[in-house]
Amino acid sequence: MDFALSKEQTLLRDGLNKFLTARYELEKSRVAAKTGPGWQPEIWRGFAEELGILGATLPEAVGGSGGGPAEAMVIAEELGRALVIEPFVDTVIVAGGLLARAGSEAAAAVLEQVAAGSAVVALAATEAGSGDHWEDISTTAVRDGEYWVLGGSKAVVMNAPLATHLLIVARTGDSEGQQAISLFLTEFNPAAPPAGVTMHGYRTIDDRRAADLIVHELRLPAAALLEADAWPSLALARDEGAAAVCAEAVGAMRKVLADTVDYSKQRQQFGQPIAGFQVLQHRMVDMYMELEQAASAVYLAVLNLDAEPTTRARAVSAAKATVGRAARFIGQNAVQLHGGMGMTEELAIGHYFKRLTAIQYEFGSTDYHRARYAKLTRPAAVG
């Protein structure tokens, strides 16, 4: 598949690549991940003030550039190549899309802060029992005069320990007992969570920050309700997030494969570089083929993000399943070809392998998307 970038997209990619090459050191980012706040706020400000990528896909009305899925793919792939841990996908793509579609003044105000680099928004959607199914939630929101009262729990809320705002998904009901999945916006301070919220933060296997939240009688003003029937927007946000992390995985796999090929030219066995062994050459060709299939699947998903829901979901699930398979194959073989050093903290390859493993479970696992794709492509029953 030919996916030629426009001149503007090429400049966006090259500018971000130059910035990350000069400013984003893997060793420094790992130290930041394990200590202090868990990220590099100065890098986030650079994304906003020097590059403008935090507003690249946001509406022009809030200070963005009005870009779309292609720009998101270009940015995510470069971030994956550099193994960036700052929360671009979760804040800009997922939360940004939800806020933009909500269309309220409060949402627009937060989007302006996102574009300026002064806000980090975390989506509290999944729960301990929901797994891959965002719609399977038990958190509730009950109207009490001028307030909504929320109760329940949220699991693995990515970037909550960094967040300035939370988007909380909860079930609401009307006078006739009908329930809907709704979306609420609230300001958030991880150091001092609001009354009614208990947070347990932790570092994930791929050096990111997440938290489990317990919500008990959290009172939010009526204006905190962004969408009463938010499921269509949430379903789109999940597909947008899945496509973005697939693009990120492609960038990471390109780096992993390049490093593996370079290493094979240096590592000696029996008096010659292991790159000269035909069986290992074949292995690396197989890795390259998996990478190219994954990249093509991502292009297809990106081109269909604006399509009707069934077509979009089918393309995204095909990409997620293809990328999941490729990430496992390329990651495992890269570690094996590096030998025991492949899983050490000193080499970059081990860090990339952890991230590629985590991506296989974000925004729906590989198995979930494989099953969804099968369901969406199954012929209709006859008779």
Description:
By secondary structure, this protein is of the alpha+beta class. The protein has 11 helices and 10 strands. The strands form 3 sheets. The chain has a 4-stranded mixed β-sheet, with helices on one face. α7 runs antiparallel to α8 and α9 packs antiparallel against α10 (348-359). The longest helix is centred in the middle third of the chain and has 36 residues, at 231-266. The protein is globular.
Q: What layout of secondary structure does this protein have?
A:
Blueprint: H1 7-23, H2 26-34, H3 41-51, H4 69-82, H5 88-102, H6 105-116, E1 121-124, E2 140-144, E3 147-158, E4 165-173, E5 179-187, E6 197-203, E7 209-221, E8 225-227, H7 231-266, E9 268-269, E10 272-273, H8 278-303, H9 309-338, H10 348-359, H11 366-377
Parallel strand pairs: 1-4
Antiparallel strand pairs: 2-3, 3-7, 4-5, 5-8, 6-7, 9-10
Helix pairs in contact: 1-4, 4-7, 5-6, 5-7, 7-8, 7-9, 7-10, 8-9, 9-10, 9-11
Outline:
51% of the residues lie in helices and 17% in strands.
Descriptive key words:
383 residues, alpha+beta, 4-stranded mixed sheet
Shape estimate:
globular
Number of helices, where a helix is a run of at least 4 consecutive DSSP H or I residues:
11
Q: How far apart are the termini?
A: 38 Å
The succession of helices and strands, N to C, reads HHHHHHEEEEEEEEHEEHHHH
- Average predicted confidence as pLDDT: 92
Give the helix proportion (percent range). 40-55%
